[in-house]
């Protein structure tokens, strides 16, 4: 049987987390994969502070224990994120799985994390003593590595309110539902006064990492789409050299080609 | 539609959907020892010794030394050991079973066993196999002459991979020593008599010393044809040693890694073409059998018998081999060798037609076998072959011809479409002379004094509906309401041997025997009396007896027919293919229950599409199957082929019950060739040669094209 603690407020949860080695439990959809004997869980489902989707001037704030199904029903959640969420697993999993859990279990194949990378999302991290806001790439470091200290909990995911209107998202999996991604791609494009302000491109699942290369993105910033077209070949070549690939469910050659195809398609959509 | 075809609620519907059915895992654990297998971690080695931890009271270590009689499981040959002999021959081979009351303790004890191996060089490549388990050669006509006179010779090699059954319930068996000294073996299985015979031999106890029961079984697809004999012997030996009931249920990884699958194949086809027609075929079939022979000989027989496809080629030579490698033994799987050769011959015919500049369907139609023609084994197609009519029906249903022309134009852009069609047949019943000379099926009907009738037969309900369709045949013949006739899971202590649940034979062979038994019972029906009638199989008179030495004669009494069409769309950026439509028309004779048959057709077709597209399984250079779970071995879901349309064409068979023929395997057989043909068209017409053809294959093929 699963042993654990049920907290009814964030304060209570953080106290338990500080005093025990309980594992935060936010959905439990990975229990079948990773049901470690002897582990005590801290159940987060009943904590109101983690269950809401709100908006302030700059951010859409999604509570860490908000489920994917709830996000799909919310008018606040941006279409890019909804598109990614709508392809996660199947309805039963989406009813249980959460945004915090998707980051917290440290999978490079997590479908919302690649969107968060492309969207320059942040996470609000809380502990008994303090709270902080961190960029997503400082929270999700690599497969099974999180930038969290003992006693810290992901409380909210912060997505920018503006700038996510032009996007591309593709999940590539072995079948139409219930599939772990072979490769996933999220891109966010920005254009102001005819010049490119953003060309964020994030890749998930390839090479066991979530990848984003801001230095390569910079080569397009400030250019008009026509100017960018001229450097596109170099830009794609730079990605080809940098993208990490490996042998997993699909081979490295496949991962590289598909990542570049999706990247190329993303830019083409916006005239580059 | 015939009256008997009207669908009824399945007799096991309510207990199954309500969860009341008792599967082998569901028997209470009290007094039952849990068995866990200690398995080889290397592909080939001599076992030097096994260092087992001290065993607490009530815990047992069971291995080959505990086998009372011969350490050999009867399947076809006797090479499969109950527990390994001096050597292990594949990763996962059982070395011993640890038994005890507490599962976790048994697992710990098993994990603490240290096996010392002297590693031997394994054979993993079937092309380099040193041992051939089975080899068959036959043919007719003058193949050499036809090739010498050919305008053009085609020489192509086709490959297929493993195919995992993915039944819902993993393998599980239980053995219980009874007070009278008998061993009672039961569990998830297709053939209670196979288990009965295998256990009898291993325990050396004679027919009266054992009985076997098929428990409610959560799917088989052929995977529970021979494997339960092995597991049944293992639990029986353990129960014999421990003096207590022992149950062993495999976990999913164990099941996927260590139990039988469809044989990977390499089929080399040479075809001689003269004046636009195929005049000769020279076929070489190679099956990777794995480490033990199990059913490979029979699977290979069906493959070579069907190597000509649905065509009549004047000169044909067929050679087949099933070879040993140090990998998981392969076995029966829906289609039983036929999907591999139909994939090859159908794809070859497409390639030849395209090369000759002829429409593949027109080319195939010109070569179709007709009633009275010779089969590859010099038998005859005794009954009408309805494929031409079926082709017209499917064309009307899905617009095949029009789409084939349209998608055949050069395509550019991200999404590209293709449509493919295949023609198949499936012979009902066991191969060649097996039914008449070896199996000799017997069925009985037992009438109770209250007028209810029990079917006594050995065929197992594995989701294909036998608990309903057998009683339907009997009730219809006797003029009884269906609720007066029932069929329980077979127990060899009670039922005669009506042969295995295999080869699309249960309705065709046992069902017809039941019909005849019911006629007999009807003639001698006496109200208020207990009565029993029995019926024995003999070949129908029209059949040309099969000579196993020459491989000549009627390999099967009757053939079922299919036309399968698959239409798909390839995303050239990701390689992902979406099946836009899968259309199948199937002639299985009279459906004994329309819903049940349609369920079979849909399920089998989808299973075949999985085999063709996403179900990729392979072993690594150590002989280890890595993707032994459902996250890494994907099977299609309903969302993958939402537009799945199946139809029936009824060419009733006068020697089958109410005109029925074999049904279970047919729908799978045509899917791989239809899928690949669609893929070839979407990718611009280049010839492809293997399944599964995955997203990865698609992307690599497109990349090759660009280079």
Q: Features of this protein?
A:
heterodimer, A: 272 residues, alpha+beta, Uridine Diphospho-n-acetylenolpyruvylglucosamine Reductase, domain 3, Enolase-like, domain 1, 2 domains, four-stranded antiparallel beta sheet, 10 helices, globular, B: 707 residues, Aldehyde Oxidoreductase, domain 4, 18 helices, 28% helix
Structure explained in plain terms:
The complex is a heterodimer of chains A (272) and B (707). In chain A, helix 3 packs antiparallel against helix 6. Chain A has two domains: 48-160, Uridine Diphospho-n-acetylenolpyruvylglucosamine Reductase, domain 3; 166-269, Enolase-like, domain 1, CATH 3.30.390.50. The model of chain A has no long low-confidence stretch (mean pLDDT 95). The longest helix of chain A has 18 residues, at 225-242. Chain A has helices spanning 10-19, 68-73, 79-86, 91-96, 99-104, 111-118, 136-139, 214-218, 225-242, 252-269; strands at 3-6, 23-25, 40-43, 53-55, 59-63, 122-126, 131-135, 140-142, 145-146, 153-160, 166-173, 181-192, 195-204, 211-212. Chain A is globular and about 60 Å long. Helices cover 33% and strands 27% of the residues of chain A. Chain A starts with a strand and ends with a helix. Chain A is of the alpha+beta class. A five-stranded antiparallel beta sheet of chain A has the order 4-5-10-6-7. Chain B is built from 18 helices and 24 strands. The longest helix of chain B is centred in the C-terminal third of the chain and has 20 residues, at 594-613. Chain B has three domains: 24-121 and 168-258, Aldehyde Oxidoreductase, domain 4 (2-Layer Sandwich), CATH 3.30.365; 333-430 and 556-706, Aldehyde oxidase/xanthine dehydrogenase, molybdopterin binding domain (Aldehyde Oxidoreductase, domain 4), CATH 3.30.365.10; 441-536, 2-Layer Sandwich (Aldehyde Oxidoreductase, domain 4). In chain B, helix 8 (338-356) runs parallel beside helix 17 (671-682). In chain B, strands 3-5-1-12-9-10-11 form a seven-stranded mixed beta sheet. Chain B has a six-stranded mixed beta sheet with strand order 7-15-14-13-8-24. In chain B, strand 9 (172-177) and strand 10 form a beta hairpin. Chain B is of the alpha+beta class and 707 residues long. The mean pLDDT of chain B is 97. The interface between A and B is medium-sized, with 23 and 22 residues.
């Amino acid at each position: 049987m699963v042993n654990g603690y049920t907290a009814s407020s964030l304060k209570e949860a953080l106290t338990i987390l500080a005093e025990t080695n309980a594992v935060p439990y936010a959905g439990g959809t990975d229990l079948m994969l990773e049901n470690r004997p002897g582990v005590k869980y801290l159940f987060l489902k009943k904590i109101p502070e983690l269950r809401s989707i709100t908006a302030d001037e700059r951010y859409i704030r999604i509570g860490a224990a908000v489920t994917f199904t709830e996000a799909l029903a919310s008018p606040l959640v941006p279409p890019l994120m909804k598109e990614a969420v709508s392809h996660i697993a199947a309805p039963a999993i989406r009813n249980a799985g959460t945004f915090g859990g998707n980051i917290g279990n440290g999978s490079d194949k997590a479908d919302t994390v690649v969107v968060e990378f492309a969207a320059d999302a942040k996470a609000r991290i809380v502990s008994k003593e303090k709270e902080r806001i961190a960029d997503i790439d400082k929270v999700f470091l690599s497969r099974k590595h999180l930038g969290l200290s003992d006693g810290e909990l992901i409380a909210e995911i912060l997505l920018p309110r503006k700038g996510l209107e032009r996007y591309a998202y593709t999940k590539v999996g072995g079948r139409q539902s219930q599939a772990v991604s072979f490769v996933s791609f999220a891109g966010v494009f920005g254009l102001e006064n005819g010049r490119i302000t953003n060309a964020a491109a994030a890749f998930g699942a390839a090479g066991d990492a979530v990848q984003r290369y801001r230095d390569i993105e910079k080569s397009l910033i400030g250019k008009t789409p026509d100017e960018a077209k001229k450097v596109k070949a170099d830009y794609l070549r730079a990605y080809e050299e940098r993208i990490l690939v490996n042998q997993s469910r699909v081979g490295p050659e496949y991962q590289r080609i598909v990542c570049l195809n999706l990247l190329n398609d993303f830019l083409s959509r916006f005239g580059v | 539609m015939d009256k008997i075809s009207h669908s009824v609620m399945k007799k096991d519907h309510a207990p199954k959907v309500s969860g009341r059915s008792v599967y082998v895992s569901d028997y209470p654990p009290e007094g039952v020892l849990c068995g866990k297998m200690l398995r080889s971690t290397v592909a080939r080695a001599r076992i030097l010794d096994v260092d087992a931890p001290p065993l607490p009271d009530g815990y047992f270590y069971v291995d080959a030394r505990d086998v009372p009689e011969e350490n050999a499981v009867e399947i076809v040959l006797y090479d499969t050991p109950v527990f390994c002999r001096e050597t292990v021959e594949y990763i996962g081979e059982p070395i011993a079973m640890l038994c005890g009351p507490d599962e976790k303790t048994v697992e710990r004890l098993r994990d603490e066993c240290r096996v010392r191996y002297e590693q031997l060089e394994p054979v993993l490549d079937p092309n380099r196999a040193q041992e051939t388990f089975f080899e068959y050669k036959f043919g007719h006509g003058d193949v050499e002459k036809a090739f010498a006179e050919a305008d053009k010779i085609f020489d192509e090699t086709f490959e297929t991979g493993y195919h995992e059954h993915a039944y819902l319930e993993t393998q599980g068996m239980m053995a219980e020593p009874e007070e009278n000294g008998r061993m009672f073996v039961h569990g998830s299985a297709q053939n209670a008599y196979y288990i009965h015979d295998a256990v009898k031999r291993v325990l050396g106890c004679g027919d009266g010393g054992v009985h076997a029961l098929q428990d409610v079984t959560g799917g088989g697809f052929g995977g529970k044809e021979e494997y339960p004999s092995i597991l049944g012997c293992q639990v029986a030996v353990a129960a014999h040693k421990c003096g207590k009931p022992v149950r062993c249920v495999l976990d999913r990884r164990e099941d996927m890694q260590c139990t039988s699958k469809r044989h990977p194949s390499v089929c080399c086809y040479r075809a001689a073409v003269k004046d636009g027609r195929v005049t000769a075929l020279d076929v070489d079939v190679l099956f990777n059998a794995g480490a033990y022979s199990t059913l490979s000989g029979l699977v290979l027989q069906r493959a070579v018998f069907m190597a000509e496809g649905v065509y009549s080629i004047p000169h044909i030579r067929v050679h087949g081999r099933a070879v040993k490698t140090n990998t998981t033994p392969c076995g029966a799987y829906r289609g039983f060798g036929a999907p591999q050769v139909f994939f090859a011959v159908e794809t070859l015919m497409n390639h030849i037609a395209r090369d000759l500049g002829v429409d593949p369907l027109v080319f195939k139609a010109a070569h179709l076998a007709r009633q009275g023609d010779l089969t590859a084994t010099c038998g005859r197609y005794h009954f009408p072959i309805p494929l031409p009519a079926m082709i017209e029906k499917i064309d009307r249903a899905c617009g095949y011809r029009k789409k084939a022309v349209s998608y055949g134009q050069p395509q550019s852009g991200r999404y590209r479409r293709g449509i493919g069609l295949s023609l198949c047949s499936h012979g009902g019943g066991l191969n060649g002379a097996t039914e008449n000379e070896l199996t000799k099926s017997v069925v009985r009907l037992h009438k109770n004094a209250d007028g209810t009738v029990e079917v006594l037969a050995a065929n197992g309900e594995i989701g294909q509906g036998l608990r309903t369709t057998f009683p339907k045949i009997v009730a219809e013949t006797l003029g009884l309401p269906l609720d007066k006739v029932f069929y329980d899971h077979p127990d060899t202590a009670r039922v005669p041997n009506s042969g295995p649940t295999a080869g699309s034979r249960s309705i065709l062979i046992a069902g017809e025997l039941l019909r005849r038994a019911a006629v007999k019972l009807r003639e001698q029906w006496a109200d208020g009396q207990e009565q029993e009638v029995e019926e024995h199989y003999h070949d129908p008179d029209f059949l040309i007896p099969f000579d196993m030495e020459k491989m000549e004669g009627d390999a099967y009494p009757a053939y079922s027919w299919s036309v399968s069409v698959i239409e798909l769309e390839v995303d050239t950026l990701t390689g992902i293919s979406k099946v836009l439509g899968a259309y199948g028309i199937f002639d299985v004779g009279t459906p004994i229950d329309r819903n049940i048959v349609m369920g079979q057709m849909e399920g089998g077709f989808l299973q075949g599409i999985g085999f063709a597209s996403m179900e990729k399984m392979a072993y690594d250079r150590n002989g280890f199957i890595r993707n032994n779970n459902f996250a890494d071995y994907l099977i299609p879901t309903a969302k993958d082929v939402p537009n799945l349309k199946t139809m029936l064409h009824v060419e009733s068979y006068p020697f089958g019950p109410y005109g029925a023929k074999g049904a279970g395997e047919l729908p799978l057989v045509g899917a791989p060739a239809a899928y690949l043909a669609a893929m070839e068209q979407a990718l611009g017409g280049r010839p492809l040669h293997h399944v599964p053809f995955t997203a990865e294959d698609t992307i690599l093929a497109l990349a090759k094209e660009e280079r």
